[in-house]
Amino acid sequence: MTYDLIVIGSGPAGYVAAIRAGQTGLKTLIIDKKYVGGMCLNWGCIPTKSLLESAKMMKKVRSAHEFGIAGIDPDSLSFDWPQALKRTNQVVEKLTRGIEFLWKKNGVEFLKAEARILSPTQVQADKRVFETKNILIATGSRPAPQNLFKDCIDLEELSSLKELPQAPLLYGRGGNLIELAQFFAMIGSKPVILTSKLPMMPYLDEALESFIQKKLKKDKIPVLLEAESQIKEGMIVYKDKEYPFDQVLNISYRKAILPPMDIELELENGFIKTDRSHNSSIAGIYAAGDVSGKGFLAHVASAQAMEVIEAIQGIVPPQEERSYPVNVYTDPELAQIGLTESEIKAKGIDYKVSQYPLTTNGKALAEGTSEGFIRVLYETKYHEVLGVQIAAEHATDLISEAGILLELEGTTYDLARTIHAHPTISEIYMDAGKVE
């Protein structure tokens, strides 16, 4: 039996590719040794966001008296870790069943086993050898190992803890680092961030990085620089001040997970090197998602997976890489799409910035979520929008409007003329579009 496509890995790249391949009539087998849904569904994107919602709910209940809700004693509140995990697991199980249903509906076969690539047309799994015309490697990534601490855990191991640490030390860089720090702070723990380097999120515009650093300071979450810190047993000394910790979480930048292979693929910084169609150095073997190192976001992985299926069917993608939203589920959320201000400067484009605060937005004030802003970066000749950054309660949802705007090469005039319902948070787009 010969397959049109064998997918190795069932995360956001793998399961999306398999579903789309089945929909288009490709005989498809997907193989994963552990999880349906990969890291994102089982211990990354979905579980962490579910736990963050539990923490945000606790924060809201603490301030319920401000909304006229009496009878709640904030000092008596406690975070029920087992119940939060139970709810999170229920969400994960529902989504997992949905993926398996879609595989079955579209004729996709699933095998739980470790896959080994024997050749460009052969994959071994479960003591069998499968023939295939194409292979998609979608095995994802993990936090890179660190050498500073003997005992540490990562996100996958966090959910196995019976009790949460009271003074967690979060080591690394990136959005997940800040999300988790805020999670612990909202439930009453005293987290400390030890970052390997600043800025913590170099892929974000400087305005968003600056905003979140000020927010962390306001929330009394210490940010320590590794180069200036002295590590002791259960203690970090930074600028003559001691910061105790009882658990280390490794949230380092990620390293590709490569499947066992009897072939040699060209790598770039440890990730599988691919072309615009996501083909590796060997024709017929594709890579999508984290394993290719071209982005570490689930929606980017899924978009790449869809392009792989198109490539298999002879459809050539546009040469220019598509712009994609970057979402960080902090409190408040951060999101951006398009060029950052530093990228615009590097290109020598004459530009302007229109920034509008949420403090004058009626819906935000009514909800008690007026912390944040929108920034619209546009070129001065035609006012074409080049990039958008948002810090707001629902920034990760609001950014989609900017995505459509950039896809259509829209202008600030388009923003200003588009009627937005009142009162809504999205009105900030219309306000930011009113420029000279």
Descriptive notes:
By secondary structure, the protein is an alpha/beta fold. The protein folds into three domains: 2-143 and 255-312, FAD/NAD(P)-binding domain, CATH 3.50.50; 155-251, FAD/NAD(P)-binding domain; 332-432, FAD/NAD-linked reductase, C-terminal dimerisation domain (Enolase-like, domain 1, 2-Layer Sandwich), CATH 3.30.390.30. The chain has helices at residues 14-23, 38-42, 45-62, 81-105, 155-158, 175-186, 206-218, 298-312, 341-346, 362-367, 395-407, 412-417, 427-432, and strands spanning 2-3, 5-8, 28-32, 109-112, 116-119, 122-125, 128-132, 135-137, 141-143, 168-172, 192-195, 223-225, 229-232, 235-238, 241-244, 247-251, 254-256, 267-268, 271-272, 285-287, 326-328, 333-338, 351-357, 373-379, 385-392. It has a five-stranded parallel beta sheet with strand order 4-3-2-8-20, with helices on one face. A five-stranded antiparallel beta sheet has the order 21-22-25-24-23, with helices on both faces. The protein has a four-stranded mixed beta sheet with strand order 1-7-6-5, with no helix packed on it.
The helix-and-strand class reads alpha/beta
CATH fold-level assignment of the largest domain: FAD/NAD(P)-binding domain
Q: What name goes with the CATH superfamily of the largest domain?
A: FAD/NAD(P)-binding domain
Query: Beta-strand level of the residues, as a percent range?
Result: 15-25%
Look at the structure and give the mean pLDDT: 95
Whole-number tally of structural domains: 3
Helix content: 25-40%
Name of the CATH first level of the largest domain? Alpha Beta
> How many strand units?
25
Spatial order of the strands in the main sheet? 4-3-2-8-20
Please, what is the oligomeric state? single chain
Give the N-terminus to C-terminus distance in angstroms: 65 Å
Anisotropy-based shape:
globular
- What's the CATH architecture of the largest domain? 3-Layer(bba) Sandwich
Which consecutive residue ranges, at least 5 long each, have pLDDT under 50?
none
Number of helices: 13
For the biggest sheet, the summary is: 5 strands, parallel
Q: What's the Cα radius of gyration?
A: 23 Å
